[in-house]
Amino acid sequence: MSYIEAIILGVVQGLTEFVPISSSGHLILVHKIFGETGIDLSVDAILQLASILAVLIYFRTDIVRVIRTLFHHIAGRGVEQEDKNLLFAIVLGTIPAFILGVLLESKMETVFRSAHLVAYALIAGSIIMFLAEKIQGPTLKSNPQGRTLDGRKGFFIGLFQALALVPGISRSGSTISGGLFVGLNRHEATRFSFILSFPIIVGSGLKKFLDLSVSGGFMEIGTPLLVSFILSFVVGLISINLLLKYLKNHNLHIFVWYRLILAAVILFFL
Known about the structure:
By secondary structure, this protein is mainly α. α7 (about 115-140) packs parallel to α9. It has one domain. Helices cover about 80% and strands about 0% of the residues. About 45% of the residues are buried.
């Protein structure tokens, strides 16, 4: 892998992991452009770890709060209801993607790495995001602060996160949409989307990393991967911050249009 490829992959992963345009879909397209075959899963695994680190650093206070709440709950100590709601929302919201991830693991490494599938999933994800915005508008007019998060809503949002196992759907796009469907405002839906991503990104990233380490899959990549990792981490932090600020006062429509245009371009060239 050249340094040019490493730079492009790092920037693409850092940007698209958190912006609702699908990181897995974009990485597949970049790998196709460069004609890579054997190293793409290895690179994706490393870059996913960079995304884990970005989420951990940016949301360190919330993640520590959730972990502390978990141990206090297990020990039978009193916890704030809001903290308990967030804990159960994350636990229940992680279950659907975990189960489907285990069941579809073999498909994700073969069938799911198709550029055609990415294009159609980009369109499907755009429809979900558009409908979420349509439904959310009247809800927030009657309740501008949005509804309170709880375990039931977390599980519902987790169902949308499971959809993102298909490259092109977008994990952040689908979970933000799920949050809008249950009445969260955009900022809270986006914030919970990122926090909810942590267990899934940790699990899938570490599994790929360990599998490929055992098989020797990292041996042929070389030092440019370090550059890609650092870029992915830095761009990821910037993307999280900018998206949270953007969605305070803007809707998802710009991302819907981008996804539809990209899908059209993919299908045209294929």
